[in-house]
Amino acid sequence: MDRVSKSIDENKINLPLTIIFKGFKNKTPQLPHLLDSLERKNVKTHLDLPDAIKNKVKKTYENTNISVQKYDDKNKEVTTCARWIRKNYQPGKRFGIIVPDLKNYRSIMQRELAAELCPESIYPEKK
User: Fold this and answer.
1) Where do the H-state alpha helices sit in 41-117?
2) Do residues 47 and 78 both lie within one domain?
3) Contact by Cβ (8 Å): 56, 30
4) Which domain holds residue 93?
């Protein structure tokens, strides 16, 4: 997250108007710094965090809309994320997904995002 915050501060990342943070289990020291970087660039943020984290962060970011979804199953979590993106997609709209444990999520993220956003890449039409 440090590199992302630095890139935001240096105007190296094109930012959307809104970013929704979902699925964080722990509040890292970098999260407030990232949120501050986004706030300086007038990006609206929504935090979807577990209660323990939400209570700590909410004191600083009172104007956020926070709801919590908990998944005990990694596949269900990723599938729900991909379907949410598909449901909310509009031409020109951009989404960013921050995955703290990307090493363990990369393959399932690629598979589920492809299945939801580009199904022909996974399920080619039978001729």
Assistant:
1) 51-58, 74-88, 102-117
2) no
3) no
4) 71-127
